[in-house]
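User: My collaborator sent over this chain with a note saying "see what the structure looks like." That's all I know about it. Can you take a look?
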Amino acid sequence: MLQVQFIRENKETVLAGLAKRNFANAETIVTQVLTADENRRATQSCYG
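Assistant: Without extra context I'll predict from the sequence alone. Here is the result:
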């Protein structure tokens, strides 16, 4: 399983790897994961 930090730092590499595996909607899913992580980070920084 990939860590979110790795996906954030290596988005193009992750997308290329998913393309090799014929992963449907890879870019959309990766974008959703990164958006969810940004929302999580924003929420934690407000209350932390």
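A starting point for your reply to your collaborator: The mean pLDDT is 93.
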